[in-house]
């Protein structure tokens, strides 16, 4: 597992491991109430980002920060009217989908959309100070940018030439309807039912809603089932290995580095498709660890609940595929799978 074909692969595995591990440890040590962002952002940046310049990182983070801030304004203004919040959210989701005319833009749609959902759902069902949450989102972005830049400088990225360009394809009304319907139904459910732990189930829903082909829709569901539910299983094993010793920071850090490096090693040696699978598995594993594992609690039950909720969500999506898409080979054959 830990044998690499070249130094570039080794450097990438080390770079990914240290960036994510350091950010997660800082999230715990700084006592942030929303430490999960210091698992979400570095994992996304180190597995998906192609441009690590300050401008490149700003292009990734700025839309997310603007989306979260706008969602906070909407939630505060219409707190007693969830239907209005939901309606405005539908307009936002449709606007985001109309702009996603290439695979890269579809991938870039995930973080702003998900952060919008996080803010409006948590604002509706908790008494947490959401302004403080926005501040912590900004702090997490700054920490992530600094840490990732540092390790990119220490373990430089080998030049891979100019990235491939994709021809823009107009988004059809059918594609917009699919995205808005799937995401809107999920958000409507979360706004009405106090089930905060299910909010992260919207990640695979967003990913599936972006697909333009029925076969790609099915593949995303099946792949996410493996990575998302499998990630919760890995997080549960990690938690059990650490049982009774989670307050020992050295042990936590060591096991965390070993786990991340194991997945990152597989990712850097894989082809493009398998790389995305490992990247998604890495994110799915880190989130429950950062969310639920604390000094005083193991969070094993909540990790397993998260796995169950993801399995149910993906099961529903697969049922929808069988009902509406199985006999239709394409939703639109002009774009490719972006996840």
Automatic annotation (TrEMBL):
InterPro entries in the record: DUF2955
Regions crossing the membrane: 16-40, 52-72, 108-125, 137-157, 177-205, 249-267, 279-295, 307-324
Keyword Lipoprotein: no
Highest taxon of source: Bacteria
UniProt keywords, alphabetically: Membrane, Transmembrane, Transmembrane helix
UniProt protein name: DUF2955 domain-containing protein
